Structures are given as structure tokens and as C-alpha cells.
Amino acid sequence: MPFENRLHQVKDSDEQHIRLVRLLAVGNEEAFREIYDLFWDKLLKFVFSKINCRESAEEIVQEIFLDLWEKRETRQIRHLSGYLFRLARNKALDTIRAQIVRDQHREYFCRQNSNKDSGTEASLAFQDLSDAIQMSLAHMPEKTREIFRMNRFEFLTVREISSHLQLSERTVEYHIAYALRTLRLYLKDFLPSVILLLMT
């Protein structure tokens, strides 16, 4: 393709992104869906290349779009693609750091469990954590809580939940991402390293 044509395509793409960002800022759902369709696969491929886990990569991309929609009125986005991929990179790095913490804690608990007296203490710690998670779930909207329980505790897929509740798969994905975000926020000061172990 001649250079002039490629340059023209880039210009058209930039103008399209500017238009979409402006529409998004005033709550235009069609613009949001168009951004979603334009960038979902690209962001998923990018995040997966960093963390090599499809499920975690999908959760990160869901969170990116949830963040984009929730903060549409306050974010000053000058370059849509750059904004989304910076967000993806940062979230991928957070996930990598969390994995390091999880590995350290697995090693720690393995060592602790080798000691006879440590079993009860570890069991109580996890019971406390479980109680705290249940409390945080109680602070979620009913529909979000229901979808999260079906996905994480009953191990239903997004498609299965969508069919069961008569909701679009995209809506189910948003609720799951919102629930994960709420849990991380609500439990951030409660055994943070162990929470990271259980949250992904």
C-alpha cells in the first residue's frame, strides 16, 4: 500500500477515535459499543502476550472497558488507542506483581503447613478472610452479586449465565468485572497479599 494511502488511513482512524471519545463523554452507548468492538480483540491479544493467561487477560480487558464507561465524564482522553493500551499495560504489570506475591505466599503456606502447630492458625486466617469476602459481597448490587456467585462459586461460564438470566454476554462480563473491582477495593486492607492469592 502506498505511503500516502497509509497516512490517509491513520488520519481517518484518528478522526474516528476523536469522534467516539466525544460521544462517549456524553454517555453515548453506541459510541461505547463501537470502541468495544474496535479494541476488544487487540487489547486481549496485547494483555495475553504479557501475562499468558487467557482468563486473567479477559478479566483485565473487561475492567478496562468498565473503567472507560464509569469514568467517561471525567477522563480527558486525547488519544484513545494510547490511553487504552497504557491502561492495559499497567493492569498487566499489576497482575504480574500479584502473581509474584501469590507465589511467595504459596511457598510460605507450604512451609507453615509443614509445622504441626501452624494448621489451626492458617485455617482461622482463611476463615476470617472468607467471612470478610461474604461481607463485601453483601455490599454489591443484587444482580452483580448473583452473577458473581454463579461465575465464581458455581463455576458457570459467561455464556451459561447469559442464557440462564436472559442477559447479554457483554452485560454478564460487566457485572463480573464490577464485582472483582468491588472486592479488591473493599478488601484492600484485609490481608492484602492473601486476597491477591484468592482473587484471580
TrEMBL record:
It comes from Ravibacter arvi. The keyword Transcription regulation applies. Residues 131-183 form the RNA polymerase sigma factor 70 region 4 type domain. Residues 42-99 form the RNA polymerase sigma-70 region domain. The keyword Transcription regulation applies. Keywords: Sigma factor, Transcription, Transcription regulation. Belongs to the sigma-70 factor family. ECF subfamily. This is RNA polymerase sigma-70 factor. It holds the Pfam family Sigma70_r2.
